[in-house]
Amino acid sequence: MSAPAAGPELGAFLRAHRALLKPEDVGLPPTARRRTPGLRREEVASLSGVSMAWYTWLEQGRVIASRQVLESVGRVLRLDDAEMRHALRLAGYYEPETSASREPVHVALQPMLDSWPTSPAVLLDRNFDVVAWNTAWTAVWGEPSAVAADRRNLLWFVAADERMRGVLRDADWEPLAMSVFQHFRAQAGARPSDERVSELYRRLATDVPELSHWWSCRSVRELTTRVVTAAPAGGEPIRLSLSSLRPVDDPASLILLFTPAGPADAAGVSALVNRPLRSVGPERKAG
Question: Is the C-alpha dihedral spanning 122, 229, 186, 74 positive or negative?
């Protein structure tokens, strides 16, 4: 574990969740109308077993919280598992960087991705940048290398890429895109000063300004299993079950796997994979 480090992001996250609760949610009697919504700081402090002054400093980013105390605060604020992990990451309790002496994880995992001939699969780094993919991914969602490197990121693909948005069924696009962002925020939120994270937000603000309200959202969630429908041009709809895996060699990386929901769906992916190759145009550079 790296050394804990408090900061304004953690304080803002705790304040946002404190504002969502009512006294009766945490076993306190209802009170007269309050000037602001949510629990008072002194209520959270008392229930968490810390002083009012210390909890105020925590929300202001002026003190370092131990893991145990932060977990106690999280229980009072009714944080779910994903939100609690996010709070811990914001406090500095996140996975260590992969050792530079190891073989790059994408080199080691490419054969595994290739072993899924009818299941689109992609490997993401800690910033959700796309670092490896298989032929089935290209056949269904498009060729990642056709996109400029600074936009070759899963969040950018689901939010801004015309090919991926066009292939996803309308009812599936926004829930999936929002879940990707919430998962991204949970993972990258611990590093708000990371230049790659800042760069990605700038790209999204430029390319999809209509989604700017997403970037100010503080909700976090894990990218859980779900079924989505892809409708490639000229083909039948294909139902795919999305699951995510974390490599043991690099827990900050993430593998996304879209498994065909049934034999007909697997046949649909296979047909796309075996279509005659078309020439790939020059690298797209949006904006």
Answer: negative
Residue 113, exposed/middle/buried by CB under 10 A (0-12, 13-18, 19+)? buried
Are 66 and 4 a contacting pair, CB within 8 Å?
yes
Q: If you average pLDDT over residues 258-280, what whole number do you get?
A: 86
The C-alpha atoms of residue 14 and residue 85 are separated, in whole angstroms, by: 13
- pTM for the complete prediction? 0.65
Edge-first strand listing for the sheet containing 130-133: 130-133, 121-124, 254-260, 238-245, 226-230
Cα angle 151-155-157, degrees, rounded to a multiple of 5: 60
Q: Tally Cβ neighbours within 10 Å of residue 255.
A: 18
108 by Cβ neighbours in 10 Å (0-12 / 13-18 / 19+) ranks as: middle
Please state, in angstroms and rounded to a whole number, the distance separating the CA atoms of residues 73 and 96.
24
Picking from 72, 91, 70, the residue whose alpha carbon sits closest to that of residue 1 is: 91
Choice between 277 and 38, residue whose per-residue pLDDT is larger = 38
Please tell me whether residue 221 adopts helix, strand or coil conformation: coil
Give 256's strand partners: 122, 244
CB 249 within 8 A of CB 108: yes
Question: Which neighbouring-strand residues pair with 259?
Answer: 241
Q: What is the pLDDT of residues 108-156, one digit of tens each?
A: 899 999 999 999 999 999 889 999 999 999 999 999 999 999 999 999 9
Mean pLDDT calculated for residue range 15-35: 82
DSSP 104: P
| Token couple for 73 | 């605060």
Closest CA to 255 of 105, 95, 123: 123
